[in-house]
Amino acid sequence: MYSTMMSCNETPPDAALNASVHVSCSNHTGLPTPLRILLAIIMLGMIAVGFLGNAIVCLIVYQKPAMRSAINLLLATLAFSDIMLSLFCMPFTAVTILTVDWNFGAPFCRISAMLYWFFVLEGVSILLIISVDRFLIIVQRQDKLNPQRAKIMIAFSWAFSFCISFPSVVGWTSVEVPSRAPQCVLGFTEFPADRAYAVMLIVAIFFIPFSIMLYSYLCILKTVRRNTVRIHNHAESVCLNQGSRLGLVGLQKARPVTVDMSFKTRAFNTILILFVGFSFCWLPHTVFSLMSVFNRQFYYSPSFYVTSTCVLWLSYLKSVFNPVIYCWRIKKFREACLEFLPKTYKVFPHVPGRMKRRIQPSTIYVCSEHQSAV
């Protein structure tokens, strides 16, 4: 069941034709006018940053053939889903926060609910694919995801997300339109079918992806830690072997072999940060949705509107969070972003960073019995 905010005196235009649409009104504690204006302005800024930042990510992958690796295609798809969320969902929520009334009609309530879950579920599916890919590479030592397979997985994720979110727009679940939230959200229902669909939606969006990603990252952390110990032990043995060849004097002057591990762990750390951001933005929304569906007292409480506004704002923050992480953590994306800036904005000259000598991965992996693909 979905709910969105409408005036108490407003009647949905298709209420008489669609028995699944209901109108109920109750008093709720609204936000003060200055706070509503501030939240609307912040959300408009989030829309701009989310759209422009994710658009740059998509343009980089589209315009640069060298960037069309499997992982970058997945990141571009994640950025595209965030763009769609910024364009087709966030503006209507911002307007409703500002005006306190849902002015877009009951039919669009169902459409906006479907679009919201559709784009969110697509982004979560991409994060899940990336996590499983990292798990296979680092833990199972199987690099099976090439660009062609990545495109197939992307197409499958779009189809899966559409199938899960589509019932909310065709009337397979009842839609209630009370003045309870600034956007269509899961609302209280006593019908088993509606509750089953709500639980399925929440499980597909959060619980299953979170569990798989958490397990994958715990296994990856364990593997990286074990390999790091092996690498350092191997480096020390190399130093001792060099010293033994040079004699006692050479042993005293033998320079230790330093290994730069950043090239092995930086990509994983970036994906881990995205996972933490996903958990931070979506855990409150998941708890909120479950309480809305199963707890009548919570759903009809005066503070429900304020709570729904906060958790919706936090869930939208993820679309702004991702491109910032790309530019911060991925050097190629950061350099490509600077190319999009006009030369007049490039005030400071480019200063090359300190070069670090990195040994070949094949040299590192001899410390283990089997070759690793970490």
TrEMBL record:
<dbReference type="GO" id="GO:0005886">
    <property type="term" value="C:plasma membrane"/>
</dbReference>
<keyword id="KW-0325">Glycoprotein</keyword>
<feature type="transmembrane region" description="Helical">
    <location>
        <begin position="271"/>
        <end position="291"/>
    </location>
</feature>
<feature type="transmembrane region" description="Helical">
    <location>
        <begin position="114"/>
        <end position="132"/>
    </location>
</feature>
<keyword id="KW-0807">Transducer</keyword>
<feature type="transmembrane region" description="Helical">
    <location>
        <begin position="195"/>
        <end position="220"/>
    </location>
</feature>
<keyword id="KW-0812">Transmembrane</keyword>
<keyword id="KW-1133">Transmembrane helix</keyword>
<feature type="transmembrane region" description="Helical">
    <location>
        <begin position="37"/>
        <end position="61"/>
    </location>
</feature>
<keyword id="KW-0297">G-protein coupled receptor</keyword>
<keyword id="KW-1003">Cell membrane</keyword>
<feature type="transmembrane region" description="Helical">
    <location>
        <begin position="303"/>
        <end position="325"/>
    </location>
</feature>
<keyword id="KW-0472">Membrane</keyword>
<dbReference type="Pfam" id="PF00001">
    <property type="entry name" value="7tm_1"/>
</dbReference>
<feature type="domain" description="G-protein coupled receptors family 1 profile">
    <location>
        <begin position="53"/>
        <end position="326"/>
    </location>
</feature>
<dbReference type="InterPro" id="IPR051880">
    <property type="entry name" value="GPC_Orphan_Receptors"/>
</dbReference>
<keyword id="KW-0675">Receptor</keyword>
<feature type="transmembrane region" description="Helical">
    <location>
        <begin position="73"/>
        <end position="94"/>
    </location>
</feature>
<dbReference type="InterPro" id="IPR000276">
    <property type="entry name" value="GPCR_Rhodpsn"/>
</dbReference>
<dbReference type="GO" id="GO:0004930">
    <property type="term" value="F:G protein-coupled receptor activity"/>
</dbReference>
<feature type="transmembrane region" description="Helical">
    <location>
        <begin position="152"/>
        <end position="175"/>
    </location>
</feature>
<protein>
    <recommendedName>
        <fullName>G-protein coupled receptors family 1 profile domain-containing protein</fullName>
    </recommendedName>
</protein>
<dbReference type="InterPro" id="IPR017452">
    <property type="entry name" value="GPCR_Rhodpsn_7TM"/>
</dbReference>
